[in-house]
Design a protein that fits this description.
Elements lengths: L7 H13 L2 E16 L8 E15 L7 H12 L5 E7 H9 L3 H9 L1 E5 L13 H31 L3 H24 L8 H8 L6 H4 L5 H19 L7 H24 L1
Parallel strand pairs: 2-3
Antiparallel strand pairs: 1-2, 1-4
Helix pairs in contact: 1-2, 3-4, 5-6, 5-10, 6-7, 6-9, 6-10
Amino acid sequence: MLTRYDTTQLRLVLQTITEAVLAEKIFLLAVQTTRCNYENIFTRIPAGRREVTHYYLLVLIDSNQHRSNEAWQDTIEHRCRMVTPVTAWVLTAVVFSQWLDAGQPFAVKVYEGGLLCYDAGKMWLREPPETDALETEKALQKECSLYMKRSAEFLKGAEQYYLRRQFRLSAFLLHQAAEQAYIAISWRITGFRPMVHNLEKLHRYALPFSSALSTVFPQNSEREEYLFRLLQRAYIDTRYTSDYTVRGADLLKLTGRVQRLYEVAQEVAGSS
């Protein structure tokens, strides 16, 4: 249960967020932890402790104040970076309340299972209506299938453009294939469709739901970081700049990675 993470560390993160944005409510949705073990010559049993290294939070704000939810997300995550890294879902409290009243799957899951760790007390959330669990699952699966089909088609297109040595177009379609696969994972598990094209954010949104995702784009070396940035840039740079170049060898490597991402998304979609 997430209740055990209501700690001083989390409260410092919440303070950082509420100083940056007018938050109405904040829910803890997931955490990333690491275990530190200590072995020594004096005791037979090693000592250990578990440390939270990343929080996943839903931040409900009073209003957008003429800024996008993504802009508020960037502000929150930037401010928290020096405390404990955060991935933030950002919605207005009014929109979330409307979703809850309509029985929207993401809102219902947050209401029933999220840890309400901050509440300004200005808005009361009504209990969601009863929904048919089987029908909800069917709807989630149906929408997920659409994202997966798009991902598969984009992958096929990328391969065709590679064979025609249209490397820039191939890279663009690889980005689209990856985007749809990430969205499929997030949607299938949470019922939330991230309205962003940023692969780094989409990767973080989906990461808590499959341990295999960390091996698809590990970003644990300069080479790995370069490959991920190359794919990330393809969405904008292949269309609006002339200096984006991608080598055939790198494109083949990225194609293999995106194919693996698609397979992971298939596994998540089938096992949920």
